[in-house]
Amino acid sequence: MRPFLFLGTRAEDVAADGEYDAVLRFSGLEESQCRRVRLERDSLADVLGEVDLDDWSGVILGGGPFNVSDPEERKSPAQLRAEAELRALALQVVETDTAFLGCCYGIGTLGGLLGGMVDRTYGEPIGAVPITLTDQGAEDPLLGVLPPTFDAFLGHKEAVHTLPRGAVLLASSATCPVQAFRLGSRVYATQFHPELDNDGLVTRIEVYRHYGYFEPAGASALIDSARAARVTEPPRLLARFVELFAR
């Protein structure tokens, strides 16, 4: 089997390692089958050279504190480089219809292509939210493994305001119209986090309490809510992604 490529953007080791470990656990992949590159730290070109997508079964992009809608003057050199590399890769992915699953930050990476727009209109606070599949989502080979309505963990400042041309809307929530979409037949983005379980969300609340997602004084209440939530379905997407696209 050709390996999968996992791209992370989290500078905080405990969150970055927890995300990668969760992707491995829920996808069923071994480390040797899922190569990780931390784009907040390393240039993709420096680590891999010129990326030939045919060398990989597919690409998985994790989340992180970068937002494409951040003012340009406030973006760090690492964010600007990561965004440029991801945009170039995303254009190749869409052109070749390479298997791609972008989790949360995938919305920012894919959502601005082909006339799409990502902004701060539909941000959602950290927690568990009911997500509903569209008719196309229920029929989709990837999203269709989920029930018509399910709870998922999320927390984001930006979201898709206008879908890219040709995108198929797969899932929505009451407070965010675009929770998942597909470009072509194999390129996916989810606003929610399929890799997150209760412990993973608690870790991120602790790590990102001063990143503007919530008032720091409210962290304890968010942690209690995260521990009490019952979120079981979204991780199935990772195993299904591997099942569909491993080659």
Automatic annotation (TrEMBL):
Cited InterPro entries: ChyE-like, Class_I_gatase-like, GATASE
Claim: Ligase is one of the keywords in the record: yes
Name of this protein: GMP synthase (Glutamine-hydrolyzing)
PANTHER family: GLUTAMINE AMIDOTRANSFERASE YLR126C-RELATED
EC number: 6.3.5.2
Recorded superkingdom: Bacteria
Keywords: Ligase
Glutamine amidotransferase domain segment(s): 52-196
Lineage: Bacteria, Bacillati, Actinomycetota, Actinomycetes, Propionibacteriales
UniProt-listed PROSITE patterns: GATASE_TYPE_1
UniProt xrefs under Gene3D superfamilies: 3.40.50.880
GO molecular function, one term: GMP synthase (glutamine-hydrolyzing) activity
Any one GO CC term of the record: cytosol
Keyword Acyltransferase tagged: no
Pfam families: GATase (PF00117)
